[in-house]
Design brief:
Blueprint: H1 8-14, H2 56-68, E1 73-77, H3 80-91, E2 97-101, H4 106-115, E3 122-126, E4 142-148, H5 160-169, E5 173-177, H6 182-185, E6 195-199, E7 213-217, H7 219-232, H8 238-248, H9 251-271, E8 275-279, H10 289-295, E9 302-307, H11 310-320, E10 325-326, E11 336-338, H12 350-356, E12 363-366, H13 372-383
Parallel strand pairs: 2-3, 2-4, 4-5, 5-6, 10-11
Antiparallel strand pairs: 1-7, 6-7, 8-9, 9-12, 11-12
Length: 384
C-alpha cells in the first residue's frame, strides 16, 4: 500500500517511489525494455509492454502524479496533445456534443473546431465566466465540458466552481487543462473535477528537454482512457518517463519562485508607460483576480502583454531582450518569450484570434528561474 504524505513537497519526492528500492538505487532506474516476461495476465491491457503504459517507469509516474493532485489515478502519454486528444476521443463519439471554453490553447482549439466535424462530433464554445449562458448551449447528447485553469494566452480564469456544479447537474464529464497552474497552484480533483490534463513538457518536467502529457482524475475514467491510449499508441518512452520523474521532483521549488517572479514582472509592466495592457491573474485589476485568489495557491509563471505601437513595437522588444529566449513552449527553467499569433495560436485565422482578443501584437512570457531583478532590468532596457 502506498504511504500517504500530507504536503505536496514530500509527495513530489517520495510518492510513487518503489519500495523497497530497486537494488538499493535511490534514483528510479530506466527500464529500457519493450516487453516483459509473461506472468499469467488474463487481459491484453495488462500484458507488460511499453505501448500498454505499464512498465515500472510508467507505474511510478502514475502513482506520483495522482498523489500530487489528490486524485485516484493518473496516466502519462507521449505529449500533451496526446493526452487531450485521447481523452476527448475516449468519451465523444459520432453524434455527441462538447461544450468548451472559447479561449483555449491553439492545438486544442484546432482539434475541436477543425477535426471534430469529420468525426461527426459537434461542439459549442462558451464564455468561461458566464455560467448562465451554458445551459442554452446544452444538447441531448452533450457529454462533457472542457476548460483551462488559466487560459492560454490571455490568462483568463473561468468560474471553475460553476463548471463542476454544471457538469454534475447535467451528467457531464468535467475536464480541465491544468498545465498553466500546475498541481502546486491548483488541484482540480479537490474541487470536484473529473479529469485534469497536463502538457508535462511544461512545468511538470520543467527543463525543456522532453515532450510528454498526463491525465489525472477518477480511476474509472482513467481506465477507459488507458485502454483507448493502448490502441492509439501515444505511450511515453521509458527514458522520457525517467526525465519527467526526475524533473517533477523540483516542481514546488520552481513553481513557487516563478509565481513570485511573474507577479513582480507583471506589476513592473503594468506601471510602464510603453505598455498598453498586462494579462496576469495576480494583478488586482485583472477580471479574474478575486476568483484566482479563491481557487489558486499561486498565480503562475505565465503572463502576456501588449505594447503601445502594435506588432512593430512587439517585434522590436523581442529583438532587444537578451535573457528570455524567443521560442515557443513554456514552463522551463529558462524564460521564454513569443507572439502566440506566430506560434501557439498560428493555426487559428486572424479573425478567430481577434474574436477571442488575441491580437497579433500580444507577447506571451514564460517566466523562468533567472533573478527577477535581472529580468526586469532586461525588459527595461528593451522597452527603452
Amino acid at each position: 500500500m502506498t504511504k500517504q504524505y500530507k504536503s505536496i513537497q514530500t509527495k513530489l519526492i517520495h510518492a510513487g517511489e518503489p519500495r523497497p528500492l530497486i537494488q538499493g538505487a535511490v534514483s528510479m532506474p530506466i527500464f529500457q525494455s519493450s516487453t516483459f516476461e509473461y506472468s499469467g495476465q488474463d487481459s491484453y491491457h495488462d500484458l507488460r509492454y511499453i505501448r500498454l503504459n505499464n512498465t515500472p517507469n510508467h507505474i511510478a509516474l502514475h502513482e506520483k502524479l495522482a498523489a500530487l493532485e489528490n486524485a485516484e489515478a493518473a496516466l502519462v502519454t507521449a505529449s500533451g496533445m496526446g493526452a487531450i486528444s485521447t481523452t476527448l476521443l475516449t468519451f465523444l463519439f459520432p453524434g455527441d456534443h462538447l461544450l468548451a471554453q472559447e479561449c483555449l490553447y491553439g492545438g486544442t482549439h484546432e482539434i475541436i473546431a477543425k477535426d471534430f466535424s469529420a468525426m461527426g462530433i459537434s461542439y459549442n464554445f462558451v464564455k468561461g465566466d458566464d455560467p448562465d449562458s451554458w445551459k442554452r448551449k446544452l444538447r441531448p447528447r452533450t457529454r462533457a465540458i472542457y476548460v483551462e485553469s488559466m487560459t492560454n494566452p490571455l490568462l483568463q480564469v473561468a468560474d471553475l466552481k460553476a463548471v463542476v456544479e454544471f457538469a454534475k447537474v447535467n451528467g457531464l464529464i468535467s475536464m480541465i487543462d491544468n498545465t498553466f497552474a500546475s498541481p502546486v497552484n491548483f488541484r482540480p480533483a479537490e474541487w470536484g473535477f473529473d479529469l485534469s490534463l497536463h502538457s508535462c513538457t511544461k512545468y511538470l518536467n520543467g527543463h525543456s528537454d522532453i515532450v510528454a502529457g498526463a491525465v489525472i482524475g477518477r480511476s474509472d475514467l482513467i481506465e477507459d482512457i488507458r485502454r483507448k491510449l493502448n490502441h492509439f499508441g501515444a505511450s511515453l518512452d521509458p527514458h522520457a518517463c525517467f526525465l519527467l520523474h526526475r524533473g517533477v521532483k523540483t516542481l514546488s521549488l520552481r513553481m513557487k519562485y516563478q509565481n513570485e517572479s511573474a507577479l513582480e514582472i507583471a506589476k513592473y509592466l503594468e506601471e510602464h508607460s510603453s505598455v498598453e495592457k498586462v494579462n496576469y491573474p495576480g494583478l488586482e485589476n485583472h477580471s479574474g483576480y478575486q476568483r484566482a485568489c479563491e481557487l489558486f495557491d499561486g498565480f503562475g509563471g505565465m503572463l502576456s502583454f501588449e505594447l503601445k505601437g502594435g506588432v512593430k513595437a512587439a517585434e522590436r522588444f523581442m529583438q532587444k531582450v537578451t535573457l528570455p529566449i524567443v521560442a515557443p513552449s513554456l514552463g522551463g527553467v529558462e524564460s521564454l518569450i513569443t507572439r502566440p499569433a506566430t506560434t501557439s495560436h498560428s493555426g487559428m485565422s486572424p479573425d478567430e484570434r481577434e474574436a477571442l482578443g488575441i491580437s497579433d501584437s500580444l507577447i506571451r512570457v514564460s517566466v523562468g528561474i533567472e533573478d527577477t531583478e535581472d529580468l526586469i532590468a532586461d525588459f527595461d532596457q528593451a522597452l527603452k
